[in-house]
């Protein structure tokens, strides 16, 4: 495949296939910057949820290298995470650490992103358990839930999930179909509220903090970014609306739109 292709699925799902992982990251970065600019033209603040993983971090690095960075009013952007490994501040395996190195430190230092607008999930440096971290993050999300804009007064209605109106929520996907730290067959899939502590994760480290499905599904747009042939089977299963208990990514849908941003290898299931 030499170009990029897309198709509109019924409803609100869009699948976009790029030639390879590098183009995928570059395109996701361009798309993210454009989305933030578009949203900023009609409302502020903008809330973006970040993901870890190699494609997620490559996307942030591509954002950092874009000439469009100065076009964004970063003072009106808030950054959150979909999940975090329960590791000390500064640990190189924290999604936060990797995102700061790839993008956020530069935005704070040079482009006016207020340090206070970066909202990492707490780890053992500040709380004793993943549950404490999840509770603290839920409270922070609740404090920002009032950021909902005037042009969407209906979003204030009773029963609204107590999180900000996430404009874009980025997710990587593991070869097992997990998104955030919502793993197939794991009790975390039944977690209530907006955040949850995670134990016995099948992928190290075993302890994590994650958004729940309710929080993820409250986002206006959910973008799942996945590359590599090892993802193809679960991508296909999710796009076939497989059971969330087996393919958690199938349950990650946005209110307005769900984008599947793939490379060619992840988009084609090889017959066995
Ligand atoms: O929390 C983690 O252990 C990872 O962040 C993980 O959830 C990752 O996002 C996906 O496995 C996709 O990772 P890749 O993009 O590297 O395939």
TrEMBL record:
<comment type="pathway">
    <text>Carbohydrate degradation; pentose phosphate pathway; D-ribulose 5-phosphate from D-glucose 6-phosphate (oxidative stage): step 2/3.</text>
</comment>
<dbReference type="InterPro" id="IPR037171">
    <property type="entry name" value="NagB/RpiA_transferase-like"/>
</dbReference>
<dbReference type="Pfam" id="PF01182">
    <property type="entry name" value="Glucosamine_iso"/>
</dbReference>
<dbReference type="InterPro" id="IPR005900">
    <property type="entry name" value="6-phosphogluconolactonase_DevB"/>
</dbReference>
<keyword id="KW-0378">Hydrolase</keyword>
<dbReference type="InterPro" id="IPR039104">
    <property type="entry name" value="6PGL"/>
</dbReference>
<comment type="similarity">
    <text>Belongs to the glucosamine/galactosamine-6-phosphate isomerase family. 6-phosphogluconolactonase subfamily.</text>
</comment>
<protein>
    <recommendedName>
        <fullName>6-phosphogluconolactonase</fullName>
        <ecNumber>3.1.1.31</ecNumber>
    </recommendedName>
</protein>
<dbReference type="GO" id="GO:0017057">
    <property type="term" value="F:6-phosphogluconolactonase activity"/>
</dbReference>
<comment type="function">
    <text>Hydrolysis of 6-phosphogluconolactone to 6-phosphogluconate.</text>
</comment>
<feature type="domain" description="Glucosamine/galactosamine-6-phosphate isomerase">
    <location>
        <begin position="19"/>
        <end position="260"/>
    </location>
</feature>
<dbReference type="InterPro" id="IPR006148">
    <property type="entry name" value="Glc/Gal-6P_isomerase"/>
</dbReference>
